[in-house]
Amino acid sequence: MPLRVNLVSADAEVWTGEASLVVAKTVEGEIGFMQGHEPVLAILAQGEVRITGVDGNRILANAQDGFLSMADDELTIVAGHASLVS
What we know:
0% of the residues lie in helices and 74% in strands. By secondary structure, the chain is an all-beta fold. It has a single domain (3-84), classed as ATP Synthase, domain 1. Strands 1-2-4-5-6 form a five-stranded mixed barrel. It is globular. The N and C termini lie far apart (28 Å). The relative contact order is 0.31.
């Protein structure tokens, strides 16, 4: 079962879908998430969020000022500012 991922900014949903891997930057360093990862609550640092979809497509976003939460194979990233990179 893949991860369910929700990346939202203060004013919009940026990306929602299923992923096999997500790497995000926290104030303590980069962290990667895959299916079965233990629960985590962390403060988001300014930087890239790299998402690998279940189909292998890669999505890149910039995010800052927020937090991320991982539990029960669902990763939620809430950022004050976030946008997809073209």
